[in-house]
Amino acid sequence: MRVFLDQLGCRLNFSENSTLAGRLNAAGHRIVGRAEEAQVIVLNTCAVTSQAARKSRQAARHLNRRNPDARIAMTGCYATLAPRESAKFPGVELVADNSAKEMLHTLLEPWSAEFSDPDDLSRIQPHGTPFAPASTEEEGGRTRAFVKVQDGCQNRCTFCIVTALRGDSRSRTTAEVVSEVQGLVDGGYREAVLTGVHLGAFGRDLDGGQRSDLKELTAAILTDTDIARLRLSSLEPWELADGFFDLWQRWPGRLCPHLHLPLQAGTDAQLRRMARRCTVASFRQLAADARAAIPNLIITTDLIVGFPGESDADFEEGLQFVEEMRFAHAHIFPFSARTGTAAAEFDGQVKKAVKRERSRRMHQVAARSGQLERTRYVGATRPVLWEGSGQPLTDQADTLLWSGLTDNYLRVTAQAPAGTDLSNRITPVRLDELHGETLYGEPLLP
Question: Could you tell me the pTM of the whole model?
Answer without folding.
Answer: 0.78
